Structures are given as structure tokens and as C-alpha cells.
Amino acid sequence: IIITSDLQRTYKMGGEIIHALKNFNISIKREEYVAIMGTSGSGKSTLMNLIGCLDSPTKGNYWLNGKLVSELSNRQLASIRNEEIGFIFQTFNLLPRMDALHNVELPLIYRGLGRKQRLEKAKEALVQVGLQDRMNHRPNEMSGGQRQRVAVARALVTKPSIILADEPTGNLDSKTSDEIMSLLDTLNKEGHTIILVTHEADIAAHAKRSIHLVDGLIQSDSLN
Amino acid sequence: IIITSDLQRTYKMGGEIIHALKNFNISIKREEYVAIMGTSGSGKSTLMNLIGCLDSPTKGNYWLNGKLVSELSNRQLASIRNEEIGFIFQTFNLLPRMDALHNVELPLIYRGLGRKQRLEKAKEALVQVGLQDRMNHRPNEMSGGQRQRVAVARALVTKPSIILADEPTGNLDSKTSDEIMSLLDTLNKEGHTIILVTHEADIAAHAKRSIHLVDGLIQSDSLN
Ligand SMILES: Nc1ncnc2c1ncn2[C@@H]1O[C@H](COP(=O)(O)OP(=O)(O)OP(=O)(O)O)[C@@H](O)[C@H]1O
Ligand SMILES: Nc1ncnc2c1ncn2[C@@H]1O[C@H](COP(=O)(O)OP(=O)(O)OP(=O)(O)O)[C@@H](O)[C@H]1O
Ligand SMILES: [Mg+2]
Ligand SMILES: [Mg+2]
Fold this sequence. Notes:
The structure is a homodimer. By secondary structure, chain A is an alpha/beta fold.
């Protein structure tokens, strides 16, 4: 389902070249549950952005569901992002002027669902992350952990076949973390592919396979 | 040094009243090292914003260094914030159009230091958090953990007498977390007062006293 070949992402900063991801080769099958770990700056979010079609590699190839992503049009890419992939961002990326309910409703608008059905599904997703009492709050009227949970709800509301979670529990206490991880575990059992970036070994332990990144390269890739 | 009496913070949302902090009574002496823990939404950031003079309580009193904060003018409050308090925000709050060096330099400008001295101190602070190779990067050219470390460097660059750290290691791997905590531990040994919000027990263990918040109230307050 996800295959990369010599994937690279570099940034040019003045005279300097930063190799955020180097010769990255990976193959992830449908329904896998993979944890990606590594130190700060090792390339995890860069990798997630490439897999999530939010960024293009500098070199190398990426096949998603058998299609070479670099050959897709912008329209086809946007359609894949909306229909196949749910992305939980490390820094949440919520729209500040909308409340939680409308932030979570957004991916359903792209899917063409009617208003009544969208609001119903958005409410259900917010209840699942424990935010039934915060639906009408905007991001700056919520705590850090509540914002993170809105980001989780928004990524999951379309029940996407591939879930990319970039540090989904970084701002959560252990009880709330457990609730979010148990949501992800259930989705994996129901057949969704999950790729999870985390710094914490206990969170990574929920996955079935762990990949360790060091300086943009895979240091190890093994079953848990 | 920090005394609160019946401190309260409520928010009005439409017809609803949210009691983020209720009848909060605390006394923190100079050079203490206090950890504040509690579930998502329990009032930790609200408390930190009140202690850091970034917000005013709805009721109750707050004495900082013997002065009643509610009776200070805006000018006096701004002066306290710049001279006494270093704040590490849960969501970093960096200026997006400036690079790391200039973000960290900002508190020193308020202190009236000359350009050469400011840049020297800002560089030193960035080296201390391991970001010597990212000084000229803007926030969106850095990883999540790198942005968090810029927020740490900025809070510490003026060597403030009171350090308020709202989840300073939430986006950091364990090795980098240890480095940041060892910085804070050293500052406490050198006489700085530290109040640290965290969800992780291993991080809280660095402090000498732990306060647990539940729904805006103190559930427990004991020595570590
Ligand atoms: N501007 C606001 N308007 C309404 N409610 C608010 C506002 N800011 C915060 N709240 C509410 O106050 C409560 C306390 O928020 P606070 O940010 O202090 O929590 P916290 O303990 O820091 O949580 P976390 O661990 O998730 O960061 C939360 O339930 C939050 O929804
Ligand atoms: N736009 C950019 N321009 C220049 N360098 C960048 C840019 N974006 C990221 N980088 C660099 O690429 C490297 C990898 O970044 P990435 O965000 O993938 O790290 P990460 O593993 O997610 O780290 P963290 O655990 O701190 O979130 C970092 O060293 C970062 O500074
Ligand atoms: Mg990252
Ligand atoms: Mg908070």
C-alpha cells in the first residue's frame, strides 16, 4: 500500500543543504500498525508529510496503492488526501476562528455529505475523544490537550483507510492518552492502516512494528 | 514569593460558566522547585497564566514578591513579566517571521542590552538547548521539538528569577528531554524558582514538591 524507493527530502538554506530525509526505503502493507521513533529533528514529520502527500520529495519515488504519487495531478492528490488519509498534525493546525465542531466537520464537507449527517458524525467523533462539553469552543478557548484531541477527532471523522498520527498524545495526561490509543487500536483491528510517530516507548508498544530514524535514515525496522 | 488567596478564573461561554480555576490557595517560596500535574483541562495552563501575570483572576488575590498584583499598573506588570519571569508556553508562541536567534533575542531587547551582547547571550542560550545549527531557521523551518527548544531558550536567556514551564518536554525525545531538565535542575540549584507543568511522572520527579490539580482545585500538595 505504501512503498518508497530512495526517497529524499532536502532543504536549501542560504548556502547550506539540510538532508531531512535520505535514501528512505520502506514498504508498509494494508492494515499494518507501525510506530516511527527517533530523536528530535531526525526526520519523522518530514516522512509523514511525504507519505501524507502534503509535500513532494526532492528525489526518489513513492507509490501509494500502486500509483506513483509524483505522477498524480494536484486534483488527484487532493482527492487522495481527502478520501484515503487522516492526518493528526504534531502542531494540531486547527482553524482558529471555527469552533471544535466545525473544525471536525471540515473533512466531511469535502466528502460531499449533507449538513445533518456531517454534524452528527462530527459530534460522534468529539464524544469519542471526550470533548462532548467543548464542541462550541474555539481553539483558543481550549486547553492544549483539548486542542490535540480536536485534531485527532478531525483526522478520524472520515474513518480514513490510512491514519497518519504525528505525536497524537504529546499534550495528554496518561488517562486521556490511553483513551486515544485505545481508539487507534480499535481502528486498526477494524482494518485501518496506522502510522504513528511518537517519542514514548509505551505508546509505540501499541503498534506491531517499530521503525527507528536517525538523521533521516532508518536505523532499525523490526516487529514489536 | 508567590501567594494566592481564593484565586478564581471563570470563563463565560454563551449561557455557560466554566470554572477553570476555583478557590486556589497556594504559597511558593523563593528557590522552590514545584511540579504541577493534572488531567487535560484541569486548569494547569490557566494557573500558569495567572502566576505569570499574563491573565487576571475573576476573583481572589495574588501577591508576587509581597506586592498585590491586581493593584499594579499595566506598565508595572509588563516590567515584572520582562524582568522577573521567564515563561515557556505549552504551544511555544514563537514569532513566525523571525528566525530562532531573533526570537530568543527578544526578551533582551526589553532589558535594554546592546546588540552585540544580546546576540552573544541569545547564541549561548541556543547552544545550551542544542540548537547551534538552527539559529537562522524560522519556526516553520524547524521540527516540533526544535521549536519547543527555542521557546525554552527564549524563556531562559534573561536568567529570570522565576521560571514558569508549561510542558517544556512534551515534544522531545527522552535524550533531549533529559538535557532540558538538567538545564532546569541546574538553574534551580543556582537559586531560580521553578514551577513546571507536566503530565509525566519522571519529569515531575525532578521537582521537590508536587501539586495535583483536579477540575480547577488542588487535590494534593506534597513533597516529592
Ligand atoms: N478562553 C476560554 N474560554 C472558555 N473556556 C476556556 C478558555 N480557556 C480555557 N478554557 C477551559 O478551561 C479549562 C482549563 O484549561 P487549561 O488550559 O488551564 O487546562 P490544562 O490543565 O492546561 O489542560 P492541558 O493539560 O490539556 O493543557 C479547560 O476545560 C478549557 O476548556
Ligand atoms: N522548511 C525547512 N527548512 C529547513 N530545514 C527544515 C525545514 N523543515 C524541517 N527542517 C529540518 O529538517 C529536520 C527534520 O525535521 P522533522 O520535522 O522531520 O523532524 P522530527 O523528527 O519530526 O523532529 P521532532 O521530534 O522534533 O518533531 C530538522 O533538523 C529540521 O530543522
Ligand atoms: Mg516532528
Ligand atoms: Mg495546558
